[in-house]
Amino acid sequence: MKALCDVRDYMTLxxxxxxxMFFQYADSGSWTQSTYKRNESDFEDILFRQRVAVxxxxxxxxxxxxxxxxxxxxxxxxxxxxxxxxxxxxxxAAKAAEKAGIPFTLSTMSIASIEDVxxxxxxxxxxQLYVMKDKVFAGNLIDRAKAAGCSALVLTLxxxxxxxxxxxxxxxxSAPPRFTPNHLWQVMTRPRWALGMLGTRRHTFGxxxxxxxxxxxxxxxxxWTAEQFDPKLNWxxxxxxxxxxxxxxxxxxxxxxxxxxxxxxxxADVIVVSNHGGxxxxxxxxxxxxxxxxxxxxxxxxxxxxxGGVRSGQDVLRAICLGADGVWLGxxxxxxxxxxxxxxxxxxxxxxxxxxxxxMALCGERLIENVGPHNLYMQRN
Length: 381
Fold this sequence. Notes:
By secondary structure, the protein is of the alpha/beta class. Helices cover 43% and strands 10% of the residues.
């Protein structure tokens, strides 16, 4: 096997090891995928100022994210069905994040449950909430996250209406996979993945089955989830959630300065500039393009994080230079997980850390807290 030096090396390896339906679930966007592609490509237009003859000893990437100390300004984003990228995926990714000294975020639509992840990890993690029509279930999710010791609640605001993802429809996606000839073929051609799945009991949505009213198996789960995303979600619901939760609240899905101001008024602790990885509104700007106007509008009032298209430590630094306080990795660590399990996530995080540290040094900075727009090369007409 060739040396794995770059996040894209892990993407290639993951693609060869994860069944197509699950790899494409994580690695595709909605409709034409223009926003998904723009998320990544727009980082390339942001250039650094190279500085020389500066003392670069004693560098530090240490940061604080939502009141939590972190070894670098990076968190792992919530990914639905992470346990279908690799057996026990949520637990393995959480353990890798623990070792790296950064936060991990568990999705409502995870395979391993909140309690399962808490029982298999040592440090508090963040929990991401989708608000369902079933408010009793949503409230119970909040209470379960609180009981598990989660240190922040992440409320995703941009999934009231599901964007259409063509690959999921073509693949007939489900968890666990359906037993059609096509799905069986996908599994049989990924023997390493299949053996891992045979060795775990975690095959379905652990936060939902057995917890939501009337959901006891996969057949009832499918009909329940199709009806449950709440199109009525609004800012008043955020107030209810904040009161019920009582801890650090992160609002994810902010792409507009006006919405950022509304978010500040809720009393949330953090907002995440995010277009859901290009999986919702196709034709929207990239997250990194939207970031500066949001920083200008509310950067002095609330902590700002960003996700979408981050594939390197250099991308992390670009976002920090433009005013982000934290940067979330999504697909980048999913590639590591699909390629090599927990070790792959750890390796991807180390690649990101080294790229971030080296680039910061070549820009003439020793401390991540000191970087800013002055480290970017502004072309003059």
